[in-house]
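Internal tracking record. Fields below are filled automatically when a chain is submitted to the structure queue. Please do not edit lines marked as system-generated. If the sequence contains nonstandard residues, flag them in the REMARKS field before resubmitting.
Queue: standard
Priority: normal
Entity type: single polypeptide chain
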Amino acid sequence: MLVTKQPIFKRFWYPVLPINLLTDGIPQQFTLLGEKIVIWRDAQGNPAAVKNRCCHRSAELSQGKVTDGCIQCPYHGWRFDRTGNCTHVPQLQAGMISPSYKVSAYACTERYGYVWVCMGEPLCDIPNIPEATDANYRLIPEFYETWKCAGLRVMENEFDTAHPTFVHTTTFGSEEHPTPDRMELQEREWGIEFWSTLGVTNPKLQQENLKLTANKTVRTMHMTWYMPFTAQLRIGYPNGLVHIVVNTAVPIDDSSSQIVQFCLRNDTEAETKAESVVSFDRAVTLEDKAILETTDFDVPLDISKEQHMMTDKPGILMRRKFLALLKAYGEVEQTHS
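SYSTEM-GENERATED OUTPUT FOLLOWS
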C-alpha cells in the first residue's frame, strides 16, 4: 500500500512537530503524505498550518516570516491567516484583495507537547491518553526522527511479540521466551487492543530504571493501536511501575516516516532520571530501526502476499481494517505492482 496514493489518510491526525520547535515568529516546514506544509503560531499563540506554496508565484511560505499572526510570503509580502485567506497584499490598496487569493489550510492543534495536523475532515479524534493529564504520571519526550520505512511496518512491529528474542538482543529480548505466555486481541472501531505477557531480560540500566534487581522479569502489556499509525504500549512491572510508550509513524511519503515517541511513567525524576529512561528506550528503538529499514515499504494489505504465523494476528487485523477502510470510502489499494 502506498499511503500517498490513498486520499483517506489525509483524514487522520498526525503529530508533525514538537511544540518547542515552534518559536514565535519562526515558521517551520514539514512534508506530510508527500505534501509540504508550513506551521507557525498565530496571533493567539496557537499552531496553524497551511500548504507551503504561495498562491501568487509558488514561493515557499516557510522561507518567510510571521507578521501579526499571519505567515508572510518571502517573495512579495502577501500574508495569509490560519484559514488560508490572504489578509494583506502590500502592492494593493485595502479592500482590493480578491477572495481567490488563498492557500489550502489544515486543521491544526497542540496535544501532548506536539503540533497535530489533519489535512482533511477528521474521521476520528486525536488518540486520548488519560495519563497525560494525570498528576501521578510524568510525560517524557523521547525522540523525533525520520526512518526509511512504512508506518504500517512500525505498527506491526510494536505488536509483534515474537521479535524481541532476535532483535532486542542487547536490551530486553530473552532466548527463553521466543513467544509470549499470553495473547488476547480485540477489535475496536478505529483500532485494536492487545494484551500480552512476555518474559524478558533485565539488564543493568533497566534494573536501575525499574528499581528491580533481578536479571529477569515479566512484562505485562496492554497495547492499543489507533488508526492509522499510532501505537500505545502500556507496560506493567511486578513492583507496580507503569511505563507507557506512545509511538506515531507520521507518513512523510510512501517510503519514509517521522517517528514521534514519548513516554509516561508513574514515578518521579528523583526516583529515575528521564535521561536514563530515554537512553534505554532509545537503544530498543535503534534495534527496531536497523531491521525495519530493510523491509519493503509497499506493505501488501492482501495477507496472501506474505507469510504469517500465530504472533502476527495483530498485524493481520491491521491489514484487514485498512482494506475495510479503503472499501468503505470507495478506494482500492494502490501498490507498485
